[in-house]
Amino acid sequence: MPTITVLRRTLAALIASGSLALAACTKGDANAADSTAGDSSVAEEGAPKSTLSLPVAVSEARNGDLILSVSTTGQVRSDAESQLRTEVAGTVLSVHIRPGSRVTKGQLLVRLDPRPFDLAVQEAEAAVAEAEVRFADAVVPDSIVTGKGPTAEQRRIALTRSGLGTAQVRLEKAKLDRERSIVTAPFAGMVDRLDVSPGERVQAGEAITTVVSLAELRIEANVLEHDIPLIREGGVAVVTSAAAPNQIVRGRVSAVLPMVDSSTRAGRVYVRVVGGLALRPGMYADVQLEAQRLTNRRLVPSAAVIERDGRPLVFVVKDGRAQWVYINPGRSNGVETEVLPDSASGVIPVEPGDQVIVSGHLTLTHDAPVRVIQGDTALTVPAGRGRRPTGR
After folding, report:
1. What is the rounded distance in angstroms from the CA atom of residue 197 to the CA atom of residue 95?
2. How far is residue 265 from each of residues 223, 224, 229, measured CA to CA in Å?
């Protein structure tokens, strides 16, 4: 019985070792077959290129001016912002506006009760009439007796004694006060706040309302003292705000102010912009100020420039394929980059109108098939927006 048990165990061991050898042999044959197949595919010279087109976005290379800029921030202010106050005391009869109302120049805003002012005018007119009588009494009798008109000196003395001049001045003042009881808009704009209501008693100098013009705005931007010489009046300014980061507002540098703050070492620059929904008085805005303009340069979007093996290049789409082109980049403003002539041939390798890839090109290979899914309109950023002027 023990002999049978030993024989069974020996047979099982032989079967197991044979199965392992068979498996190893099978696996080796398979690897050899795969290796042969791989060598065959590598050796096959006539294999077709890949037809899988990768989606990319492009923008055209162009000739133009490269605008180097200084980045800063500034506060938006209105050229016309007025807090209207009463010039006379009175009772508010009617209010014709509310906060947010758009008004035109000369439009009625607030009216005070006119009756006290009408009575003051009538009283002043009566005083003028009385003074005219006294003046006549002083000069007419002597003229009748002598048959001659009064001299200039006599008229002056009579006018002073009668009080006619003073009465006429008081009449003009009463009429002016009546005019001032009607508050009108000094310019076209929007009502920012309203501080009175009908029936309220107001004193002279009390705030009534604030009107702000949104048509013409200025931005007061701080510029560090070492950047001030780079800024010139009339230069282009590109403005964005946190309220509308994708809405670009263009303006012009209207003034470079002479004073530099001794604590911050910064001067101020005024930028004029046309008002709109993107900018409101009181906002802080990011400003790109034109510092230097390099004219007639070959430009490509900065997003198109990448590096391979430490060499800068761009991909140009030709006949549906991405052809990489090594370039010699010059200065950049963060949005566009100048392409310089090749140091050996003196030729700029990118032509105006070439479609250079700005998105989807980081993993591309040379001569890879591509398809354009969007043009440069979806990727347009205004020239002049970028970092401080630097050379590359």
Report:
1. 7
2. 9, 6, 14
Question: Residue 392 and residue 389: Cα distance in Å, rounded?
Answer: 10
d(CA 325, CA 173): 82
- Amino acid occupying residue 385: R
- Name the one residue in this structure whose structure tokens are 């980045």: 71
Number of residues assigned to the chain: 392
Give exposure, 84-112, as e/b (b: 16+ Cβ within 10 Å): bebebebebeebebeeebebeeeeebbbb
Tokens for 361? 């090109």
Structure token pair of residue 187: 């310019």
- If pLDDT is split at 50, 70 and 90, which confidence band does 159 have? confident
Instruction: From 325, 327, 318, select the one nearest 369 (Cα to Cα).
Output: 318
pTM exceeds 0.85, yes or no: no
CA–CA separation, 154 vs 159, rounded Å? 8
Per-residue tokens: 212:
């702000």
Query: pLDDT at position 42, please?
Result: 34
Tokens 């009579």 appear where?
158
Do 158 and 94 meet the contact criterion of CB atoms below 8 Å apart?
no
Are 255 and 219 in contact by the 8 Å Cβ rule? The answer is no
Backbone angles phi, psi at 49, to 5 degrees: -70, 165
Q: How far apart are CA 196 and CA 198, in angstroms?
A: 7
Distance CA 336, CA 381 (A): 9
Helical spans, DSSP H, in the chain: 2-43, 115-146, 152-162, 164-180
pLDDT in tens, 161-199: 889 999 999 999 999 999 999 999 999 999 999 999 999
Say which amino acid occupies 254.
S
Per-residue burial over 227-265, b if 16 or more Cβ lie within 10 Å, else e, is bbebbeeebbbbbbbeeeeeeebebebbebeeeeeeeee
- At 4-48, the pLDDT tens digits run 444 455 444 444 444 434 333 344 443 433 433 333 333 334 445
Lowest mean pLDDT among 83-87, 158-162, 216-220, 322-326: 158-162
